[in-house]
Write a structure and sequence with these properties.
disordered N terminus; flat; alpha+beta; about 250 residues
Length: about 250
Amino acid sequence: MRVFSIAKGFHYLARHAYPNLSQKELDRLRAIRLWRQTKDARLVCETFGIGRATLYRLIQRFDPKDLSSLKEHSRRPRRLRKPTWSHELIIAVKALRRQYPRWGKEKLSVLLAARGWDVSVSTVGRILQYLKARGDIVEHRRRAISTKRRMQRPYAVRKPKDYIPVCPGDLVQVDTLDIRPVAGVVLKQFTARDVISKWDVIEARYRATAYTAKEFVNTLQRRMPFPIKAIQVDGDSALLRRFRTGL
């Protein structure tokens, strides 16, 4: 039996294999190669859209034998600020927050000061964030309070979805249109159409008010050859309000 040894270069390739580089990391490699060929930092920065400080940082960090040096490094600070509050203060803030679940750091700091704790508002806020991250307290979902009251509609109601017109007069659609026959004159045209028979009734008025809307409904009842069961108006226009007050 003959035993063959592995080529010497295999171990070097295994240690310095090409990592899986993203498109951004490949652009960094191309930028470094272009800088080594031209030594023109301005050309490299304009070509790849990076700043001079970024380019020099990449050049200083790049290791030709380790392409993983092109990857994004963690920007976490080397020294992190350690908490300055005690475990007893955390328990006090947690107890007050559970007692008053909707109160913020300003109100809680006042209660803590009344109980003998010398703590700032910002410290209470950081403790609350710490407790939320741990899942010890849960932020209550606030409901929006609206002061608007829905207008009562004694006459007009929303058309039911299951209401399907079948016979003439089941549904008549009414709308208004501004017409200008001559310069300086603006008239309001009331237009009504029965959705089944396509029967139209048109009337022009000087203004679209509750009184003229009521008169137009009377005109509809006279000129339509069939009884009218329902009238549909545009809910986004002022016509709906005029019909409510005019009927």
